[in-house]
Give the backbone structure.
Amino acid sequence: MSIKGRTRMAVLFCGLLLWAGPVAAAAAADAADALRLVWAADRGQGFDLFTAVQEKNGWGPSTRLVDGPEADITPACTVDQGGRLWLVWIVRDREGRSQLRYRIDALGRKPREGRIVTGFDDNYAPVVLIDREGTGWVAWASYTGSSDDVFASRFDGAGWSAPLRVHAANDQPDVKPFLSLSGDGRVQVTWLGLREGGYQRFQVQWNGTGFLGERVVADKTWEQGMHKHLRRKAPPLPRETRAQGMVTAFLPGNREIQAVPDWVFPLTFSEGR
């Protein structure tokens, strides 16, 4: 499939800005239980990442967070128990490769940042999560040359583990990854996979050595769970982040569900869009 064709598929199935649209956003929380938005926008110098913190009557002034020579897009973020902002995003170079990068704020010191090696040149839709032990996790989708698969990696303090496909190998698209914690604290990945009869929502859990227990999750069951954890009011998003509605969010005080993509927002915010 051509890059243009895969791009259209990504827009249709993933709902996140990998592409040529001007805005993607993610949100995280500070110690005062305020949302912190992080989004990608082109202000005339190419796509960079910007941030703003929720204030009493809306959003505070924005500042540039990541400023690189290439296009920085589709951020997702969370905050660990120590208050550090974890950020993952896609960097698209001039040759059209889309690489996965990360940044961990160091509370006053130089942030730790670099590339997460995926083994593929076409990566998109990253999400991030901190588990109960403080370990960072990232999941994303990659076009492998024959189809789209969902992968995950965890941070051990020294670096990121080798990418692990979360589902069985198949020749059908697997897209829209979502990271969360189960009630007993297990990391779980939920995604959409095309099978006979259309797209279904699948889920696996981490057992300490791998992702097991692939099962189909009914849309209604999954959406009810999202309502339970995420329903809240939020101020209108900054105008710049609404240009294409490509937004992800982190809700403060919620450790089970953290980085929330825009396609979940109708289940999440009772106002603000």
